[in-house]
Amino acid sequence: MQTDFYRIKRLPPYVIEEVNVLKAKARAAGEDIIDFSMGNPDMPTPQHIVDKLIETARDPRSNRYSASRGIKGLRKAYAAFYQRRFGVKVDWESEVIANIGSKEGFANLAQAITAPGDVVLVPNPAYPIHAFGFILAGAAIRHVPATTPEEYLSSLGRAVKHSVPSPLAMVVNYPSNPTAQVVGLDFYKEVVAFAKKHEIWVLSDLAYADIYFDDKNPPPSILQVEGAKDIAIEFQSLSKTYAMPGWRMGFAAGNKHLIHALGRIKSYLDYGAYTPIQVAAAAALNGPQDCADEIRAIYKSRRDVLVESMKRAGWDIPSPPASMFAWAPVPESYREKGSMEFAKQLLIHAKVAVLPGTGFGEYGEGYVRVALVENEHRIRQAARNVKKFLSLRVNEPAELETAK
Questions:
Q1: I need a surface site. Which of 166, 183, 200, 302 has the fewest CB within 10 A?
Q2: What domain count does the chain have?
Q3: 340-379 pLDDT, tens per residue?
Q4: Distance CA 348, CA 351 (A)
Q5: For 267, how many CA atoms within 13 A lie in the half-sphere containing its CB?
Q6: Residue 212 gets which letter from DSSP?
Q7: Are residues 77 and 118 in the same domain?
Q8: Which residues contact residue 313 at a Cβ distance below 8 angstroms, ignoring those fewer than 6 apart?
Q9: Could you tell me if residue 1 is inside a domain?
Q10: The domain containing residue 330 runs over which residues?
């Protein structure tokens, strides 16, 4: 009987799993691991959102199947959010759809629009689903260097020129996961012009739109560009903005043909998120936004403590302008070993977990991603551990046995 399944074969080895194995073994041995590896918000969901969930769940009618495209009140709330936050008008009926988290929406859209052999342009380094969603759909991925937004833009023309067949779609993600870089509206203007010239769909991941640290320059939306809705769809998530990761609520807005295609696929796969969760999500979007401001302030404070304390420890980490991540260069003394080996050594000897940059693509080598998901006390403790670790200059290869 065949067990070597086609789509599974297309998935490359998950580099990050090596760190997860080490982390699990260390914890099983009773070690206290300060975990900056997963972008998993640790703050409580604001109380008024939780209260709305409980209130709605008490109604027996809410326990029935929901709507895969999202209930009307939620889609209207998403449209109102776009008008309020970006000054962009989107039609809640044809240009907005609810997703069970932005990751699900992204992967399902890849299934909806991709035929085997289609070429998709994906930035590198990038969040894994940006490539893997299309790989699972049978596409051929052309990785475009994106160590900076400027490099990504300048490399797109060459990528199109050398792609056969011509690319179907391209991905943009700013604020970026993992690099935390941001772009202005001029960047999106160039992307829209390029995509229209080459007849390429644009998939924008804006999950970190409201985790930014420059109050005068909040990250823009690609849909603010005139004509962007002709070729673009944008994904957002409530996970980070309102500390709701486990609730799995996200949405997409933009081109009505892409929204319709995503809705068709979802209609075969799900009945939407649990209705009380959708109602609570609408309450989050329509309600007071001081909770989102408070969450953003916590991330900013953690960022400042991380950068300052790690610098004193001997590890210079650039201050990220947005997102819940820092994109940290591997210290010079460990540069030759690579990001994977550095992440292993850091976990084993400093009890600090980060993700190696190679988990986000080959152009992530030389960096590790640090998630701001531990409180300030734990961040300072991690910095003390890192300082001792760097002073030891461990030379032996990291082996699983050392974590026992």
A1: 166
A2: 2
A3: 999 999 999 999 999 999 999 999 999 999 999 999 999 9
A4: 6
A5: 6
A6: B
A7: yes
A8: 383, 384, 386, 387, 390
A9: no
A10: 6-44+291-403
Whole-number Å distance between alpha carbons of 395 and 400: 15
Q: Where are the alpha helices (DSSP H) in 207-274?
A: 238-241, 256-269
Sign for the pseudo-dihedral over CA of 51, 57, 58, 59: positive
Which tokens go with 88? 């962009």
C-alpha dist (Å) from residue 299 to 46, 211, 357:
15, 8, 21
**CB within 8 Å of 86: residues ≥ 6 apart:** 220, 221, 223, 224
> Cβ contacts of residue 102 below 8 Å, gap of 6+?
205, 207, 235, 236, 237, 239, 250, 251, 252
In this structure, the strands spanning 140-145 and 119-124 are parallel
- Rg of the chain's alpha carbons, rounded to an integer? 21
Interatomic CA distance for residues 306 and 370, integer angstroms: 9
CATH code of the domain containing 248: 3.40.640.10
- Tokens 């929901």 — which residue? 66
Q: What is the pLDDT of residues 223-282, one digit of tens each?
A: 999 999 999 999 999 999 999 999 999 999 999 999 999 999 999 998 899 999 999 999
> Would 326 be classed as within a structural domain?
yes
Mapped onto helix, strand or coil, the DSSP state of residue 81 is: helix
pTM for this structure? Answer: 0.92
For the record, the structure tokens of 259 come out as 């929204």
How many Cβ atoms sit within 10 Å of the Cβ of residue 67? 17
Phi/psi zone of residue 259: left (φ > 0), alpha (ψ -120 to 50 degrees), beta?
alpha
Cα 287 from chain centroid (whole Å) = 24
Name the domain boundary from 251, 286, 321: 286
